[in-house]
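Predict structure. Input: ARCA-like protein, 383 residues.
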Amino acid sequence: MAQQRLPKPRPTQDSLMTVRGQDLPQSLWSQKDVQEACLMRYFVDELAQWFDTCDPSKHFAKVVPQRAANCPALLYAIFSASARHLSRSQYLRTNEVLCLGKKLPFLGDDAALEYQSLCISHLMNLSGNPAEVADENLLAAAVILRFYEEVDSPLIGVDDETYLRGVQVFLDAQGTAAVRDGGLRLAAFWKTPHGANRVILNCAHTLMYCYDERSHTVKEYEQLWDYNQGWNRMAPPTFNPIYLRQPDRSKGEVFPELWFLDDCIVTAIQHWHLARILLAAFDPRVPRLGPGRRAAVGRREAEIKESMFVLCGIARSNKTAPALITACMGVSMCGDRVTDRLEQEALLGILTTTEETHALPTTKAQVQLREAWGWTNSDGRLA
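Output follows.
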């Protein structure tokens, strides 16, 4: 095949180590320098959970690193994602990059861009080969690159159009095979248990309904609404929170506290609330005029606010990486509707916490909300 392979280390006397009394050849990773060893560990320990949210087999944590030993594109995708996330999250807090007690003075956006460019180069070179396009290892590499394209701004120097075209070819080519074959290929398409999968898909359909350029009928809306409400009624008891506490305003609390059994359930419930927000905001049945309009609008606004606060409460209460990101979507879409100062500060806290915790930029959303809320100092500048 045309795909290049990294050389395997030879078991020489200098590369042997003793483990439990046996001499074993060191792995490929032991031949890497400290920086790249840290990047691999960081992916396994920190970033893989973003991809394995609804995959009980944890393919990205357990299988992908092993496959990367013989797939340069996958290896560089891992290094790029880890370098970018680790350097930004560490630098925001300490102005230096530390990983597993090791200082990494040369790690930054430049290093992430170099790894990303190497990965894209491999993918572009192989994208014209039908056999390589069907390689699930390259699909995983494309998904890792696409992940950062979706949650962060592209690094300077990347040709976005060419980059996305080179990545998308692997995603387009393997969708059908993912359902048929399973394994890593299906994990790359975000395999989920059926209950979570259905509500996530309904959220995607709702998003398409709300933002598609073509016109839609009230019947299409009602089908989405009925499904959203029906899923909520029919979801198994395991999707209920194991602990629920309403906020205490006397203590300055805004969001409810909700604990769920696992990250898959967290993802499902958050996507149900995202769909509910969209359906409430784009309801074509709300009267345009007449005495019933104010009451109908009020009901929908209350639903939007409730779901937005639940999104934030789930993110605060459950330690799963994507939860804060999903909450940020709700805050960015609907935060401007909130008029209470305490609630505004709590919503802004979701955005700042996400940036501090996950190194994902939310500054633009923060500025837009401050402007919408009219937060200005005495000199007219934003507070």
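DSSP finds 16 helices and six strands in the chain.
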